[in-house]
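Cross-check.
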Amino acid sequence: MPGKLGLPEILLILFIALLIFGPSKLADLGKGIGEGIKNFKSAVKDGEQGTEKKS
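Predicted model, tokenized:
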């Protein structure tokens, strides 16, 4: 089925990313993505609370 990623495909993508970026850059990239997701979730939560106060 096209568009479906299994474990072998994910491992291959991670291996290629490790070869391209190296272990330290890959760790920094993961940290940055995690912080971005955390900030996005907190902004969405703050936005929801702001709209509830206006209602």
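The chain has a mean pLDDT of 85. The helical segments are 7-21, 23-54. Passed to J.P. for a second look.
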